[in-house]
Amino acid sequence: TPHEVAATAAAQGAEALHASSAWVAIVDADRRTLELAHAAGHSEGTVQRFRSFSLDAELPLAEAVRTATPLWLETADAIFGRFPRFAEVRPQAQSAALLPLVDGGAALGAIGLVFDAPRTFGPADRDYLLTLTRLCGQALGRARVYQTEHDLALTLQQALLPDGLPRAEGLELAVRYLPTADGAAAGGDFYDALAM
Fold first, then answer.
1. Which of 51, 59, 63, 65 is CA-nearest to residue 103?
2. Pairing between strand 52-54 and 21-27?
């Protein structure tokens, strides 16, 4: 699923750079809200409070999505001077990297890695994270397309089923639906019950 794709990338980035916490938020269908897909290194209360937040929120993760631009915040002043509300998320933060997940020119979400110690993001760190999030953005885009096609196929398949089975004296009818193809295929799946 799209959430699993994003969560995997965040976990890999956090592990590689030894981040104190990691966040992933995905833009909702209306492009108004960020929905938390993954959070590690935070209390359950913090996770619940930020499970969903406005794309207009004055938080670095939201800005990375709005601008589709990475934020490299290498000091506490860089974080809290610009985003004072981030104290509600992680007051002990000393540095953070917030990276948009982009596919086809649109930000689909963002990954945030937060460090409880000051950190300079050198060229190797930046290259790694930019590559990781670029690939994750593309995978997230593909996962969304797949999810949309899957949902459409399921809706079509369900719409093609009859409301009920015909009744036949002396017979008990049962049905099991197995589509003939995976993906967005609909049609080609037929059955009938005829009175003879």
1. 65
2. unpaired
pLDDT over 60 at 184, yes or no:
no
Contact in structure between 24 and 38 (CB atoms under 8 Å)? yes
Q: Using the CB atoms, write b or e for 10-46: b if 16+ within 10 Å.
A: bbebbeebebbbbbbbbbeeeeebbebbbbbbbeeeb
- Residue 179 CB: number of other CB atoms within 10 A? 16
Phi, then psi, of 38 in degrees rounded to 5: -160, 140
- CB of 133 closer than 8 Å to CB of 99: yes
148-174 pLDDT, tens digit per residue, is 776 677 777 776 667 777 777 877 777
Among 39, 55, 33, smallest CA distance to 111 is for 39
37's tokens: 């897909």
Residues 6+ apart with CB under 8 A from 123: none
Sheet holding 21-27, edge to edge: 52-54, 33-40, 21-27, 106-115, 95-103, 71-73
Residue 191: pLDDT over 70: no
